[in-house]
Structures are given as C-alpha cells and as structure tokens.
Amino acid sequence: MSVYTTEIASDKIPSDNVIHQRLLSAYYQAKPYIKGNLLELGCGEGRGVELLAPLADSYIGIDKIELVIDRLKEKYPNYEFMSGVFPPFPFEDDSFDTIVTFQVIEHVKDDEGFIKEIHRVLKPGGTALITTPNIKMTLSRNPWHEREYTGDELTKLCKRYFENVAMKGIGGNEKVLEYHERNRASVNRIMRFDFLDLQHKLPAGLLRIPYDILNRMNRNKLKETGDELVKSITHEDFSLNVQDEQNLDLFCLLNK
Asked: Order of strands, edge to edge, in the sheet holding 37-41?
C-alpha cells in the first residue's frame, strides 16, 4: 500500500526527484544545529532520520500517518516513533534541545498553537528549525495547505512566543531555477482553463483529487521533456540563503 500523493514526494518516483531533493536539502542545512534530545514534528516517511538522528542523544519522530510510523519503527528500531495529530504535543515542558519541523506548519490549522507548543517543549537554550513554502514562489493554490506565508508573516507569528527569530530561506542554483520556470510555464498552461478561478473559490476538499491528478501529470510531463535536468538535480543544488522573496522555502531558526 502506498501513502504517496504529490504532496508527499517520494525518492522512489523519478518525477518527484526535484521536490524530494529540495525537501532533503533542509535536513543537510539543519545538521550543524542538532544537539541533545531531538524531536521531529511531522517526520513523514523518515527522509531525514539517517542524517539527523545519529547527531542527537535521542530522537523522537511523530506523524499523523500510522502506516508510515509502523514502517519507521521496523526500519529504525533504535529510535522512537509515534503517531498523532498536533498541537498539542504529548510531551512535558522543556523536553527537547532541538526541534525540527519541515514542510509541516502549512498543514496545521492552529499555527499559533503549534508555535506555542514548540516553545513549551523546547528547553531553554534550545533551537527549533521550521521550513515551509515561500508563498511568493507558489505557482497555484495548494488545497492540502491551510495557508502559506511570506518571511515577514512567519517571523511575526513566531515572535509572539520567541524573542530570537532568524528568518532565512532555501534557494536553488541555475538548474533548480530552470526547472522552476519550466514548472511555472506548465502550470500556467493548465491554469488558463480555470477562467472562473475555481482554485480559490471551491472548498479545499473538492480540489485535492483533481489537484493531485494534474500535479502528477505535470511532474511526469516535466520529466519526459527534461529528463536529464530532473535526474541531475541533487540536494547540493539547493542552498541556505538570507531572507529573500526568491527563496523557494522559508527556513526559520527559533532560539529559546
């Protein structure tokens, strides 16, 4: 049984490679910040476990998809995994030295409660790392997302609970930007048929299946017409940058 949609990119689907490498790059950028007891909120299918868990004294991953958690428990018996919907988190105050949560907050209805809970369970002196899509680079509405942010919007939200907030971003080199522009042109060709702007008018639940079908078709087409480009992109083609509207993802550092 597969849990993958276009929203949960797979390293096993060739047309997902660019998205997978973009998501993977955040884990590489996080490595210098990992210490002590590590919590990953929204660990998904464990893309970053092998990169980050060995750097910590302990690792706990939590995700809402029980099937994925069951697989991770079998694959990584030395680490702890649990299924659950959050916030709140099932942990005591001041429990973790480091928290990572990548491409998760955009799915959380209570985003303020999410940040509040991160502050609660993070130890004094601890660090939390958050990534989320930069709305300035979004190509269409994503019905799987509750909302998306600009860097300033996410900074403002985080500063309600954290005094020390540093906003950066994940950007790409020329190869990545070439793929992004090809993607933009392809999405625009699809969206020209949405002359009633239904993507912004219909409830998200009605849009998810057609969004996923069209997104998969689009990724497959981008691979077919640019196979070498899609295959050639790795996590090294992405970088951690200063805050900029051209970054693909926001990369936010919170210190308690």
From this structure: 80-83, 58-63, 37-41, 96-102, 122-133, 249-255, 164-172, 238-242
Classified as helix, coil or strand, 73 is helix
CA terminus-to-terminus distance, the chain: 41
Which element (helix H / strand E) includes 240? Answer: strand 238-242
Tokens of 246: 């051209």
Name the residue type at position 211: Y
Contact in structure between 136 and 250 (CB atoms under 8 Å)? no
Question: Do the Cβ atoms of 63 and 44 come closer than 8 Å?
Answer: yes
C-alpha distances out from residue 49 to 42, 52, 80, 150, 254, Å: 12, 5, 11, 28, 21
The CB density around residue 30, as the number of other CB atoms within 10 Å, is 24
- Per residue in 23-80, pLDDT (tens digit) is 999 999 999 999 999 999 999 999 999 999 999 999 999 999 899 999 999 999 999 9
Write the pLDDT tens digit of every residue in 193-204.
Answer: 888 888 988 888
Look up the pTM and report it.
Answer: 0.93
Q: Which residue matches tokens 């928290």?
A: 99
CATH class name, domain 14-255: alpha beta
